[in-house]
Amino acid sequence: MAAILRDGFEMGDVLTFDTYGGVAADNTTVRSGVYSAKITYNTGYGEYVLPGGPFSSLYVRACVRSTTNDIQIRLRDNLDHHCFSIEFDTTTKTVQIRDSSDTLQASSTKLWAIDTWYICEISANMAGTPSISVKVDGDVWVEWAGSLTYTSMYRLRLTGGGNVYFDDVGVNDPSGTENNGWLGDGHIIMAGPMGAGDQTGLTPSTGANWQCVDEIPNNADVDYVFGSMDTSYDLYGLANLSTSIPDTDVIKNVWVEATARQEAGGADGISLGVKAGTTEAWCSKIALLTTYTRQRGTYYPANPDDAAAWEESDIDALQAGVKLVA
Q1: Residue 81 three-state SS
Q2: Tally of domains in the chain
Q3: How much is the pTM?
Q4: Who contacts 72 (Cβ-Cβ below 8 Å, separation ≥6)?
Q5: Largest alpha-carbon pair distance within the chain?
Q6: Taking 80 as the threshold, does the pLDDT of residue 205 lie above it?
Q7: Collapsed DSSP state (helix, strand, coil) of residue 317
Q8: Can you say how many angstroms the Cα of residue 291 is from the centroid of all Cα atoms in its chain?
Q9: In this structure, are 211 and 124 located in the same domain?
Q10: Contact present, 44 and 21 (Cβ < 8 Å)
Q11: CA separation for the pair 310, 180 (Å, rounded)
Q12: How confident is the model over 299-309, as a mean pLDDT?
């Protein structure tokens, strides 16, 4: 599976979380792109159910910042038990590893500062004796190995007191040949629809197809595209990103996100995909609810047209699409 999750909150909302409360998209304090996620009050949180879970080994990245309160990154099982948590403690300014009962097990000797972005990375291996290693800005700050009551990692919860920010979140598992280790520094940015693509098979509620899906954040039923015929689809031209990507950066993953719901009498699923060069690549069917939810397609670590590494020119020419699947 390798790449399990990437989230930069660039859709301007927090619908990427499976459950949440006391958290909102924020465009004033960001690390990358235009938005971050802000915990707005004490015990606010956003939680992901990790696709393909539970996992016995994971690599996690969450870029974090706090103006006043503790920051917590928790791995949880499918019964809502805490496996362990990483805490940026505001009293001691240490980074801490806490066990399933929230007991402190290890603290960093290095200290963190308020109002500063940090890249927090976690390596957690639950096979045998559980072991946890935490990097901050690329350096190992704290490690621990010992017994945990719960070891089946299924959910990732981002939480803390008010005025805590998260950005550029990612999760890998060790499988595969790509995206199978520490994530390192990384920035998540978005290219939204800027024109019609090579296919306009869906029906717009008003105006042009692409103009019905370009709002950030989404405007629900104000305007949208729809259809009822299986395999009908749209492709959209995207905003150029080459000026936003430094020449020294490497494009590690490309994927498509959409906000969608099932309409009465319509297809009950969608597929999200890209057109790169002459090649269209689509994810497997995503089942929809009758209420709007955020959906992600396949993560592409390489250009599906030539299987080579992504180049800036590939991104500028890329099209993204949504297809109905019965």
Answers
A1: coil
A2: 2
A3: 0.95
A4: 85, 86, 87, 88, 157, 158, 159, 160
A5: 60
A6: yes
A7: helix
A8: 21
A9: no
A10: yes
A11: 18
A12: 96
